[in-house]
Amino acid sequence: MVLLAAAGLGFTGILLYQSMTGVAIAGCGVRKSCDVVLASDWSVWLGVPVTIPAFGLWLFMLVAAAGGWLRPLRYAALLATAAGVWFVYLQVVKVQTLCPYCMAAHGCALAMLVLALVGVQRIPWGGVLLAGVCMVVLAGGQVLVTPQPKPIRLVTHGQLKINTERLPVLGSRDAPHLFIYFFDYTCVHCRETHAVLMKARERYGDQVAIALAPAPLDASCNPLLTETHDGNREACALARLMLKLHMHDPATLPVFDSFVAGMNPPTLDGATAFAVERFGREAVDNVLLHAVAGSDLEAWCQLNAEVGKSINHPDPESVPKLVLGNGTVIPGPIPDPEALYRLLENDLGLKPVESARLTPP
């Protein structure tokens, strides 16, 4: 029971960390099941993330199991199991997807209850009543007080609806035009396109924001590739470093992105030294964020390929690709800023800001 309680506390602690920070859980990245569950309206009770009381309950069960307090442990296991029944129902019926971390915690609760009841001569009706009351309070608080859903910015391309919530963004997420840029720091054409996009941001100001979706040409993190060319061997590590820094502190993104995109060629040693000097060793060495970044990278590589297939690209995994806010996809490099400006102004109605008009060509 001590081992089960420790496992349940661990699973719930991971869920609590995600609830409080918004950081993706390793193995549950963009568009994955537990990401959907933890972002749903049913993940809170009266405005409080349900992971907070769940963590407290599991902590009590660990202490009770270690101390041999069997009677309160039975009551707590009954309560955890009843709550688990309710949350499994919500995942199956309301959210229609299962969170593996949640299900693992519910399984621990059920196993705890079975062990806690071994040798019991009569049913602990007091605990059953307490669990039933708590379940009614839990369900009632969620059903009667449904929180307002968080606005999520989507970019639609054909049948693809791309959720930009966890993508690092250069500029404001609320900008009228949000573009998604699939890229690789070690890709020469990507660095050329990156420079053009930064000029476009200067030209159009707050009208435009760029969501960075790294899709490294490196088989060590891109499941769609079977080999890695010599020039791309540090692509995954550079992308993970960018994502870790962004998750640690979003304010680091413009500085680090500008530095790495300007390196020719970019190196992991150089990027790491710069990050440590500017942002500190803690941001660079965070192991949990490293695992989370890897999970997100895999999802964005898959999404990049889906976009490529949707436009019948002969090499759908290739980068760069730029997806405009209206769903238009620009594959391949953009060497000429003027060509991009004409497209943005003619198709999207963007207007140069005054400072850009005054800048000589």
Describe this structure in words.
The structure is a single chain. The chain is α+β, with helices and mostly antiparallel strands. The chain is built from 14 helices and 9 strands. It has helices at 2-21, 33-38, 51-67, 70-95, 100-116, 125-144, 188-204, 235-248, 253-262, 268-279, 281-285, 287-310, 337-347, 354-358; strands spanning 44-45, 48-49, 154-157, 160-163, 169-170, 177-183, 208-214, 321-323, 329-331. The strands form 3 sheets. Strands 5-7-6-8-9 form a 5-stranded mixed beta sheet, sandwiched between helices. Strands 1-2 form a two-stranded antiparallel sheet. The chain has a two-stranded antiparallel ribbon with strand order 3-4. Strand 6, helix 7 (188-204) and strand 7 form a beta-alpha-beta unit. Helix 4 (70-95) runs antiparallel to helix 5 (100-116) and helix 8 packs across helix 12. The longest helix has 26 residues, at 70-95. The protein is elongated.
How is the secondary structure organized here?
Layout: H1 2-21, H2 33-38, E1 44-45, E2 48-49, H3 51-67, H4 70-95, H5 100-116, H6 125-144, E3 154-157, E4 160-163, E5 169-170, E6 177-183, H7 188-204, E7 208-214, H8 235-248, H9 253-262, H10 268-279, H11 281-285, H12 287-310, E8 321-323, E9 329-331, H13 337-347, H14 354-358
Helix pairs in contact: 1-3, 1-5, 3-4, 4-5, 4-6, 8-9, 8-10, 8-12
